[in-house]
Design goal:
Order of helices and strands: HHHEHEEHEEEEHEEEHEHHHHH
CATH class of the largest domain: Alpha Beta
Largest sheet: 4 strands, antiparallel
CATH topology of the largest domain: Gyrase A, domain 2
CATH architecture of the largest domain: 2-Layer Sandwich
Length: 430
Protein backbone atom coordinates (compact mmCIF):
# COMPACT_ATOMS: atom_id res chain seq x y z
CA UNK A 1 0.00 0.00 0.00
CA UNK A 2 2.77 2.41 0.94
CA UNK A 3 4.70 1.59 -2.24
CA UNK A 4 1.57 2.14 -4.34
CA UNK A 5 0.87 5.47 -2.65
CA UNK A 6 4.45 6.60 -3.26
CA UNK A 7 4.17 5.56 -6.91
CA UNK A 8 0.93 7.52 -7.35
CA UNK A 9 2.50 10.55 -5.66
CA UNK A 10 5.53 10.34 -7.92
CA UNK A 11 3.33 10.14 -11.02
CA UNK A 12 1.37 13.20 -9.93
CA UNK A 13 4.57 15.15 -9.30
CA UNK A 14 5.84 14.22 -12.75
CA UNK A 15 2.56 15.38 -14.31
CA UNK A 16 2.79 18.61 -12.34
CA UNK A 17 6.39 19.16 -13.47
CA UNK A 18 5.41 18.43 -17.08
CA UNK A 19 2.60 20.96 -16.84
CA UNK A 20 4.96 23.60 -15.43
CA UNK A 21 7.57 22.79 -18.06
CA UNK A 22 4.98 23.11 -20.80
CA UNK A 23 4.02 26.58 -19.56
CA UNK A 24 7.68 27.61 -19.46
CA UNK A 25 8.20 26.37 -23.03
CA UNK A 26 5.14 28.29 -24.24
CA UNK A 27 6.41 31.42 -22.51
CA UNK A 28 9.81 31.02 -24.18
CA UNK A 29 8.14 30.65 -27.58
CA UNK A 30 6.22 33.85 -26.88
CA UNK A 31 9.43 35.72 -25.94
CA UNK A 32 11.22 34.50 -29.08
CA UNK A 33 8.27 35.50 -31.29
CA UNK A 34 8.02 38.90 -29.59
CA UNK A 35 11.76 39.51 -30.04
CA UNK A 36 11.59 38.49 -33.72
CA UNK A 37 8.67 40.87 -34.29
CA UNK A 38 10.61 43.62 -32.48
CA UNK A 39 13.59 42.97 -34.77
CA UNK A 40 11.44 43.46 -37.88
CA UNK A 41 9.96 46.56 -36.30
CA UNK A 42 13.42 47.98 -35.48
CA UNK A 43 14.89 47.52 -38.95
CA UNK A 44 14.37 50.65 -41.08
CA UNK A 45 12.50 49.47 -44.17
CA UNK A 46 9.38 50.13 -46.21
CA UNK A 47 7.46 47.28 -44.58
CA UNK A 48 4.22 48.09 -42.77
CA UNK A 49 5.65 46.92 -39.44
CA UNK A 50 8.68 49.21 -39.61
CA UNK A 51 7.01 52.15 -41.36
CA UNK A 52 4.25 52.33 -38.74
CA UNK A 53 6.60 54.25 -36.44
CA UNK A 54 9.70 55.66 -38.17
CA UNK A 55 12.89 56.35 -36.26
CA UNK A 56 13.24 59.84 -34.81
CA UNK A 57 16.84 60.91 -35.31
CA UNK A 58 18.45 63.87 -33.60
CA UNK A 59 20.33 66.74 -35.16
CA UNK A 60 23.70 65.00 -35.06
CA UNK A 61 22.36 61.96 -36.95
CA UNK A 62 19.77 63.42 -39.34
CA UNK A 63 21.51 66.72 -40.03
CA UNK A 64 19.81 70.10 -39.65
CA UNK A 65 20.41 73.41 -37.96
CA UNK A 66 21.39 74.53 -34.48
CA UNK A 67 20.12 78.02 -33.62
CA UNK A 68 21.00 80.12 -30.58
CA UNK A 69 18.88 83.13 -29.64
CA UNK A 70 19.67 85.71 -26.99
CA UNK A 71 16.73 86.66 -24.76
CA UNK A 72 16.26 90.33 -23.85
CA UNK A 73 14.87 90.45 -20.30
CA UNK A 74 15.69 94.09 -19.65
CA UNK A 75 12.04 95.10 -19.34
CA UNK A 76 10.97 92.06 -17.31
CA UNK A 77 10.96 92.21 -13.49
CA UNK A 78 13.37 89.74 -11.90
CA UNK A 79 10.56 87.87 -10.14
CA UNK A 80 8.88 87.19 -13.51
CA UNK A 81 11.94 86.29 -15.54
CA UNK A 82 11.78 82.55 -14.94
CA UNK A 83 8.14 82.32 -16.02
CA UNK A 84 8.82 84.53 -19.04
CA UNK A 85 11.70 82.30 -20.16
CA UNK A 86 9.54 79.20 -19.79
CA UNK A 87 6.70 80.83 -21.71
CA UNK A 88 9.12 81.92 -24.42
CA UNK A 89 10.37 78.37 -24.86
CA UNK A 90 6.82 77.04 -25.13
CA UNK A 91 5.80 79.67 -27.66
CA UNK A 92 8.79 79.08 -29.93
CA UNK A 93 8.33 75.32 -29.72
CA UNK A 94 4.68 75.68 -30.69
CA UNK A 95 5.62 78.08 -33.48
CA UNK A 96 8.19 75.70 -34.95
CA UNK A 97 5.75 72.77 -34.76
CA UNK A 98 3.09 74.71 -36.63
CA UNK A 99 5.44 75.15 -39.57
CA UNK A 100 6.14 71.45 -39.89
CA UNK A 101 9.61 71.14 -38.38
CA UNK A 102 10.10 67.51 -37.38
CA UNK A 103 10.67 66.80 -33.69
CA UNK A 104 12.20 70.19 -32.79
CA UNK A 105 14.14 70.45 -29.57
CA UNK A 106 13.84 73.79 -27.80
CA UNK A 107 15.50 74.52 -24.48
CA UNK A 108 17.01 77.42 -22.54
CA UNK A 109 20.43 77.87 -21.02
CA UNK A 110 22.20 80.54 -19.02
CA UNK A 111 25.74 81.80 -19.64
CA UNK A 112 26.80 84.37 -17.06
CA UNK A 113 24.18 87.12 -17.12
CA UNK A 114 22.94 86.11 -20.57
CA UNK A 115 19.89 83.95 -21.10
CA UNK A 116 19.74 82.00 -24.33
CA UNK A 117 17.17 80.00 -26.23
CA UNK A 118 18.53 77.03 -28.17
CA UNK A 119 16.55 75.50 -31.04
CA UNK A 120 17.63 72.22 -32.67
CA UNK A 121 15.91 71.57 -36.01
CA UNK A 122 16.66 68.06 -37.22
CA UNK A 123 16.18 67.23 -40.90
CA UNK A 124 15.00 70.74 -41.88
CA UNK A 125 15.00 71.22 -45.66
CA UNK A 126 14.77 75.03 -45.60
CA UNK A 127 16.67 76.40 -42.62
CA UNK A 128 16.26 80.05 -43.61
CA UNK A 129 12.49 79.70 -43.71
CA UNK A 130 12.47 78.16 -40.22
CA UNK A 131 14.67 81.01 -38.95
CA UNK A 132 12.32 83.57 -40.45
CA UNK A 133 9.27 81.95 -38.90
CA UNK A 134 10.82 81.87 -35.44
CA UNK A 135 12.06 85.44 -35.72
CA UNK A 136 8.70 86.71 -36.97
CA UNK A 137 6.80 85.57 -33.91
CA UNK A 138 5.60 88.99 -32.71
CA UNK A 139 6.58 90.77 -29.54
CA UNK A 140 3.79 93.13 -28.55
CA UNK A 141 4.04 95.83 -25.92
CA UNK A 142 2.01 98.90 -24.98
CA UNK A 143 3.91 102.08 -24.17
CA UNK A 144 2.88 105.26 -22.41
CA UNK A 145 3.78 108.61 -23.94
CA UNK A 146 5.55 111.19 -21.76
CA UNK A 147 6.49 114.68 -22.86
CA UNK A 148 9.97 115.68 -21.62
CA UNK A 149 10.56 119.18 -22.85
CA UNK A 150 10.63 119.07 -26.64
CA UNK A 151 11.26 115.32 -26.63
CA UNK A 152 8.65 112.58 -26.54
CA UNK A 153 9.49 109.50 -24.55
CA UNK A 154 7.79 106.14 -24.97
CA UNK A 155 7.70 104.42 -21.57
CA UNK A 156 7.16 100.61 -21.66
CA UNK A 157 4.36 99.27 -19.50
CA UNK A 158 3.96 95.84 -17.94
CA UNK A 159 1.34 94.93 -20.58
CA UNK A 160 2.98 92.73 -23.23
CA UNK A 161 2.10 89.87 -25.56
CA UNK A 162 2.58 87.30 -22.81
CA UNK A 163 -0.94 88.09 -21.59
CA UNK A 164 -2.69 87.58 -24.93
CA UNK A 165 -5.50 85.01 -24.95
CA UNK A 166 -6.43 85.26 -28.62
CA UNK A 167 -6.54 87.48 -31.69
CA UNK A 168 -9.01 88.08 -34.52
CA UNK A 169 -9.00 89.85 -37.86
CA UNK A 170 -11.47 92.74 -38.19
CA UNK A 171 -12.20 95.84 -40.24
CA UNK A 172 -12.92 99.46 -39.43
CA UNK A 173 -16.61 100.15 -40.09
CA UNK A 174 -15.90 103.47 -41.79
CA UNK A 175 -12.55 103.16 -43.54
CA UNK A 176 -12.70 99.33 -44.00
CA UNK A 177 -9.02 99.14 -43.05
CA UNK A 178 -7.81 95.85 -41.58
CA UNK A 179 -7.42 95.74 -37.80
CA UNK A 180 -6.21 93.23 -35.23
CA UNK A 181 -8.53 92.65 -32.26
CA UNK A 182 -6.88 91.30 -29.13
CA UNK A 183 -8.29 89.58 -26.05
CA UNK A 184 -6.16 89.40 -22.92
CA UNK A 185 -6.31 86.69 -20.26
CA UNK A 186 -7.52 87.40 -16.73
CA UNK A 187 -4.23 88.83 -15.48
CA UNK A 188 -3.74 90.81 -18.69
CA UNK A 189 -7.25 92.27 -18.47
CA UNK A 190 -6.49 93.60 -14.97
CA UNK A 191 -3.21 95.13 -16.14
CA UNK A 192 -4.89 96.67 -19.24
CA UNK A 193 -7.57 98.20 -17.04
CA UNK A 194 -4.92 99.66 -14.73
CA UNK A 195 -2.80 101.03 -17.61
CA UNK A 196 -5.77 102.69 -19.34
CA UNK A 197 -7.05 104.00 -16.01
CA UNK A 198 -3.86 105.93 -15.32
CA UNK A 199 -3.63 107.26 -18.87
CA UNK A 200 -7.09 108.75 -19.39
CA UNK A 201 -6.74 111.63 -21.82
CA UNK A 202 -3.22 110.49 -22.69
CA UNK A 203 -1.84 108.59 -25.71
CA UNK A 204 -1.20 104.84 -25.43
CA UNK A 205 0.87 103.28 -28.21
CA UNK A 206 1.04 99.67 -29.37
CA UNK A 207 4.52 98.57 -30.46
CA UNK A 208 4.91 95.39 -32.49
CA UNK A 209 8.49 94.05 -32.73
CA UNK A 210 9.78 97.48 -31.70
CA UNK A 211 7.78 99.38 -34.35
CA UNK A 212 4.86 101.65 -33.55
CA UNK A 213 1.50 100.44 -34.83
CA UNK A 214 -1.11 103.23 -34.77
CA UNK A 215 -3.12 105.20 -37.30
CA UNK A 216 -2.34 108.57 -35.83
CA UNK A 217 1.18 109.74 -35.33
CA UNK A 218 0.41 110.72 -31.74
CA UNK A 219 -1.11 107.27 -30.93
CA UNK A 220 -4.73 106.67 -29.84
CA UNK A 221 -5.99 108.72 -26.90
CA UNK A 222 -7.41 106.78 -23.97
CA UNK A 223 -10.95 108.08 -23.44
CA UNK A 224 -11.79 106.00 -20.36
CA UNK A 225 -10.69 103.06 -18.24
CA UNK A 226 -11.19 99.92 -20.35
CA UNK A 227 -12.45 96.80 -18.62
CA UNK A 228 -12.97 93.33 -20.04
CA UNK A 229 -9.50 92.80 -21.50
CA UNK A 230 -10.23 93.71 -25.14
CA UNK A 231 -8.15 95.99 -27.38
CA UNK A 232 -7.42 96.63 -31.03
CA UNK A 233 -4.32 97.46 -33.06
CA UNK A 234 -4.62 99.65 -36.14
CA UNK A 235 -1.76 100.52 -38.42
CA UNK A 236 -2.80 100.78 -42.08
CA UNK A 237 -2.33 97.02 -42.48
CA UNK A 238 -3.02 95.19 -45.67
CA UNK A 239 -5.36 92.25 -45.22
CA UNK A 240 -2.48 89.79 -45.62
CA UNK A 241 -0.36 91.63 -43.05
CA UNK A 242 -3.18 91.72 -40.52
CA UNK A 243 -4.01 88.04 -41.10
CA UNK A 244 -0.34 87.11 -40.63
CA UNK A 245 -0.19 89.03 -37.34
CA UNK A 246 -3.38 87.30 -36.11
CA UNK A 247 -1.97 83.88 -36.96
CA UNK A 248 1.24 84.57 -35.10
CA UNK A 249 -0.53 85.96 -32.05
CA UNK A 250 -2.77 82.90 -31.89
CA UNK A 251 0.32 80.69 -32.16
CA UNK A 252 1.77 82.65 -29.26
CA UNK A 253 3.20 86.12 -28.84
CA UNK A 254 6.70 86.31 -27.44
CA UNK A 255 6.83 87.36 -23.80
CA UNK A 256 10.28 88.88 -24.46
CA UNK A 257 12.29 89.86 -27.57
CA UNK A 258 14.84 87.39 -28.97
CA UNK A 259 17.80 87.87 -31.29
CA UNK A 260 19.59 85.24 -33.36
CA UNK A 261 23.27 85.28 -32.32
CA UNK A 262 24.60 81.99 -33.68
CA UNK A 263 23.70 79.38 -36.27
CA UNK A 264 25.36 76.07 -37.08
CA UNK A 265 24.34 73.72 -39.85
CA UNK A 266 25.09 69.99 -39.90
CA UNK A 267 24.91 68.27 -43.27
CA UNK A 268 22.79 65.16 -43.75
CA UNK A 269 25.81 63.27 -45.13
CA UNK A 270 27.72 63.84 -41.90
CA UNK A 271 24.76 62.56 -39.90
CA UNK A 272 24.45 59.40 -42.00
CA UNK A 273 28.17 58.74 -41.61
CA UNK A 274 27.95 59.16 -37.84
CA UNK A 275 24.95 56.83 -37.68
CA UNK A 276 26.67 54.17 -39.78
CA UNK A 277 29.80 54.33 -37.62
CA UNK A 278 27.75 54.08 -34.41
CA UNK A 279 25.79 51.04 -35.62
CA UNK A 280 28.99 49.33 -36.79
CA UNK A 281 30.75 50.00 -33.48
CA UNK A 282 27.74 48.70 -31.53
CA UNK A 283 27.60 45.52 -33.63
CA UNK A 284 31.32 44.82 -33.18
CA UNK A 285 31.07 45.42 -29.43
CA UNK A 286 28.04 43.13 -29.09
CA UNK A 287 29.71 40.32 -31.06
CA UNK A 288 32.86 40.67 -28.94
CA UNK A 289 30.79 40.34 -25.76
CA UNK A 290 28.98 37.25 -27.06
CA UNK A 291 32.28 35.69 -28.17
CA UNK A 292 33.81 36.25 -24.74
CA UNK A 293 30.78 34.76 -22.97
CA UNK A 294 30.90 31.66 -25.20
CA UNK A 295 34.59 31.10 -24.44
CA UNK A 296 34.39 31.72 -20.72
CA UNK A 297 30.97 30.27 -19.81
CA UNK A 298 30.47 27.87 -22.74
CA UNK A 299 26.87 26.58 -22.48
CA UNK A 300 25.89 29.44 -20.20
CA UNK A 301 27.47 31.83 -22.71
CA UNK A 302 25.14 30.59 -25.45
CA UNK A 303 22.12 31.45 -23.31
CA UNK A 304 23.61 34.84 -22.45
CA UNK A 305 24.19 35.60 -26.15
CA UNK A 306 20.63 34.65 -27.08
CA UNK A 307 19.21 36.72 -24.23
CA UNK A 308 21.41 39.68 -25.22
CA UNK A 309 20.17 39.66 -28.82
CA UNK A 310 16.58 39.50 -27.63
CA UNK A 311 17.28 42.33 -25.19
CA UNK A 312 18.68 44.55 -27.98
CA UNK A 313 15.65 43.93 -30.21
CA UNK A 314 13.17 44.67 -27.41
CA UNK A 315 14.98 47.79 -26.18
CA UNK A 316 15.22 49.32 -29.64
CA UNK A 317 11.52 48.62 -30.12
CA UNK A 318 10.76 50.51 -26.89
CA UNK A 319 12.88 53.42 -28.15
CA UNK A 320 10.90 53.48 -31.37
CA UNK A 321 7.44 53.13 -29.84
CA UNK A 322 7.76 55.88 -27.20
CA UNK A 323 9.36 57.44 -29.37
CA UNK A 324 12.62 59.01 -28.20
CA UNK A 325 14.80 61.13 -30.46
CA UNK A 326 17.92 59.08 -31.01
CA UNK A 327 21.25 60.95 -30.87
CA UNK A 328 24.88 59.92 -30.65
CA UNK A 329 24.72 60.45 -26.89
CA UNK A 330 21.59 58.29 -26.74
CA UNK A 331 23.35 55.52 -28.64
CA UNK A 332 26.19 55.73 -26.11
CA UNK A 333 23.71 55.32 -23.26
CA UNK A 334 22.14 52.31 -24.97
CA UNK A 335 25.52 50.65 -25.53
CA UNK A 336 26.35 51.17 -21.86
CA UNK A 337 23.09 49.46 -20.92
CA UNK A 338 24.14 46.44 -23.03
CA UNK A 339 27.17 46.04 -20.80
CA UNK A 340 24.97 46.21 -17.71
CA UNK A 341 22.64 43.55 -19.17
CA UNK A 342 25.61 41.21 -19.61
CA UNK A 343 26.82 42.06 -16.11
CA UNK A 344 23.53 40.78 -14.69
CA UNK A 345 23.97 37.47 -16.54
CA UNK A 346 27.51 37.14 -15.20
CA UNK A 347 26.29 37.53 -11.63
CA UNK A 348 23.66 34.83 -12.18
CA UNK A 349 26.11 32.42 -13.82
CA UNK A 350 28.73 32.82 -11.09
CA UNK A 351 26.15 32.17 -8.36
CA UNK A 352 24.85 29.15 -10.29
CA UNK A 353 28.38 27.72 -10.62
CA UNK A 354 28.85 28.05 -6.88
CA UNK A 355 25.65 26.11 -6.25
CA UNK A 356 26.70 23.38 -8.72
CA UNK A 357 29.97 22.98 -6.84
CA UNK A 358 27.96 22.39 -3.66
CA UNK A 359 26.33 19.39 -5.35
CA UNK A 360 22.91 20.79 -6.22
CA UNK A 361 21.11 19.52 -9.30
CA UNK A 362 21.22 21.85 -12.29
CA UNK A 363 17.60 22.98 -12.05
CA UNK A 364 17.96 23.72 -8.33
CA UNK A 365 21.33 25.41 -8.87
CA UNK A 366 19.83 27.72 -11.53
CA UNK A 367 16.95 28.77 -9.26
CA UNK A 368 19.26 29.32 -6.31
CA UNK A 369 21.72 31.23 -8.50
CA UNK A 370 19.00 33.65 -9.58
CA UNK A 371 17.76 34.03 -6.01
CA UNK A 372 21.18 34.91 -4.67
CA UNK A 373 22.14 37.16 -7.61
CA UNK A 374 18.93 39.19 -7.61
CA UNK A 375 19.80 41.57 -4.70
CA UNK A 376 23.07 42.58 -6.40
CA UNK A 377 21.37 43.02 -9.79
CA UNK A 378 18.55 45.04 -8.23
CA UNK A 379 20.79 47.37 -6.23
CA UNK A 380 23.25 48.10 -9.06
CA UNK A 381 20.47 48.79 -11.55
CA UNK A 382 18.48 50.99 -9.17
CA UNK A 383 21.54 53.16 -8.45
CA UNK A 384 22.11 53.54 -12.20
CA UNK A 385 18.44 54.45 -12.72
CA UNK A 386 18.64 57.09 -9.98
CA UNK A 387 21.74 58.58 -11.61
CA UNK A 388 19.93 58.64 -14.98
CA UNK A 389 16.95 60.44 -13.49
CA UNK A 390 19.20 63.08 -11.90
CA UNK A 391 21.06 63.60 -15.19
CA UNK A 392 17.81 63.89 -17.13
CA UNK A 393 16.13 66.47 -14.91
CA UNK A 394 19.15 68.61 -14.02
CA UNK A 395 20.94 68.80 -17.38
CA UNK A 396 20.01 69.66 -20.94
CA UNK A 397 20.72 68.84 -24.56
CA UNK A 398 22.69 65.67 -25.37
CA UNK A 399 23.16 64.67 -21.71
CA UNK A 400 19.40 64.22 -21.39
CA UNK A 401 19.40 61.92 -24.41
CA UNK A 402 22.16 59.84 -22.86
CA UNK A 403 20.33 59.63 -19.52
CA UNK A 404 16.97 58.66 -21.06
CA UNK A 405 18.45 55.92 -23.25
CA UNK A 406 20.44 54.54 -20.30
CA UNK A 407 17.38 54.54 -18.02
CA UNK A 408 15.19 52.67 -20.50
CA UNK A 409 18.01 50.25 -21.32
CA UNK A 410 18.58 49.41 -17.65
CA UNK A 411 14.86 48.83 -17.03
CA UNK A 412 14.64 46.43 -19.98
CA UNK A 413 17.91 44.74 -18.95
CA UNK A 414 16.39 43.81 -15.58
CA UNK A 415 13.51 42.17 -17.43
CA UNK A 416 15.97 40.45 -19.76
CA UNK A 417 18.16 39.02 -16.99
CA UNK A 418 15.36 37.84 -14.73
CA UNK A 419 12.87 36.72 -17.38
CA UNK A 420 14.56 35.85 -20.68
CA UNK A 421 17.77 34.28 -19.34
CA UNK A 422 15.89 32.49 -16.57
CA UNK A 423 13.35 31.02 -19.02
CA UNK A 424 16.11 29.82 -21.36
CA UNK A 425 17.89 28.07 -18.50
CA UNK A 426 14.68 26.52 -17.17
CA UNK A 427 13.88 25.02 -20.57
CA UNK A 428 17.32 23.75 -21.60
CA UNK A 429 19.23 23.14 -18.35
CA UNK A 430 17.54 19.86 -17.41
Amino acid sequence: MVRRALQILQEKLELLNMSKQRKVVFFLVFLVALSALAGFFDYPSESKISAWRPWQLGLDLAGGSFLIYEIDLEGVPSVDQESVIKGLRDVVERRVNLFGVREPKVYTERSGDTNRLVVELAGVSDVNEAINQIGETPFLEFREVKQEGENVAFIPTELTGRYIKGAQLGFDQITREAQVFLEFNGEGADIFEEVTGRNIGQPLCAFLDGEIRSVEEDCPIVQAKISGGRAQITGRFTIDEARSIVERFNAGALPAPIKLVNQQTIGADFGREALTSSVFAGAIGTLAIIFFMLIYYRRFGFFAGAALLMYIALTLAVFKIIPITLTLAGIAGFLLSIGMAVDANILVFERTKEELKKGLLRASAVEEGFRRAWPSIRDSNITTMISSIVLYYFTSSFVQGFALALFIGVVVSMFSAITITRTLLRVFMR
